[in-house]
Amino acid sequence: MRLCAYGSRTVIDLHCHVLPGIDDGPETIDGSVALARAAVLAGVSTVVATPHVSWSYPTTAEAIARAVELVNERFLAEEIALDVTAGAEIAMTRVADTPAQELSSLTLGGGPWLLLEPPFSPAASGLDAIVLDLQRQGHRIVLAHPERCPSFHRDPGLLAELVRGGAITSITAGSLVGRFGEHARRFALTLAQQGMVHNVASDSHDETQRAPGITNELDRAGLAPLADWLTRAVPSAILEGSEEIPPRPPFKLGGLATTRRPWWRRRG
């Protein structure tokens, strides 16, 4: 993997739907080129291609590898300074039906980390058991956009327990500035305030409607002091195959009201 500097900062987008014709990202290679150009303009040097692996999009590791090779060859020919490495966004509902060897081929950059997508439903029954089982198999878990997961809104203590158990979170940059609604924005900022945001990625699907910006959103949300950790140090460790991520630098996010009772405490 070649990491390119953008000014004095290297930005790695850990969650991006850049591959053509494989899920709900670009339909064509030209769409991938347009997304890539927008990513470079936004300061991104490396993207992890994370197409959906779900019942709607039964994508395979073999198909992802072919598409990654295709876009890297095209970007090189177009002189686009963007590296693409393979990964996947695996729906929680597909884990049990995915063979162990295939799961190991769907990791982020070939290391131990899997990007797991919680359901967009009010309940996520069994999510904690699935995460624990994957960890017992030797996988490390990155939870995709938990701030947009209704079950975590209803029971934030579940997310806190998963993080205490070793999972980390990847927040969508657009959530920090309200692109997915005020509830998602406030939840994302609360997670940041509580030290439960470990990565911010674009989750981009195209160059305009779901654009690949990250650093501008971090700046607007008041998280610029953590930008290097969130967008370089943590994703670098993941792509290099590290079992652990580097510790978060000292930081306090202001502007959010606090409550006497811990927000993450489980109901019941």
Shape: globular
CATH class: Alpha Beta
Going by CATH, the homologous superfamily would be Metal-dependent hydrolases
Distance between the termini: 46 Å
Structural class: alpha/beta
Poorly predicted runs of 5 or more residues: 1-8, 257-268
Supply Rg. 17 Å
Assign the CATH topology.
Answer: TIM Barrel
Taken together, the total number of domains comes to 1
Quick one: biggest sheet? 6 strands, parallel
Number of strands: 9
Number of helices: 9
* DSSP helix fraction: 25-40%
Strand order of the largest sheet: 3-5-6-7-8-9
3D architecture notes:
The structure is a single chain. The strands form two sheets. Strands 3-5-6-7-8-9 form a six-stranded parallel beta sheet. A three-stranded parallel beta sheet has the order 1-2-4. It contains nine helices and nine strands. It has helices spanning 29-41, 61-77, 100-104, 127-136, 150-154, 156-164, 182-193, 215-220, 227-239, and strands spanning 12-16, 46-49, 52-53, 83-86, 89-91, 113-117, 140-144, 168-172, 199-201. Helix 3 links the parallel strand 5 (89-91) and strand 6. The protein has one domain (12-239): TIM Barrel (Alpha-Beta Barrel), CATH 3.20.20. The chain is an alpha/beta fold and 268 residues long.
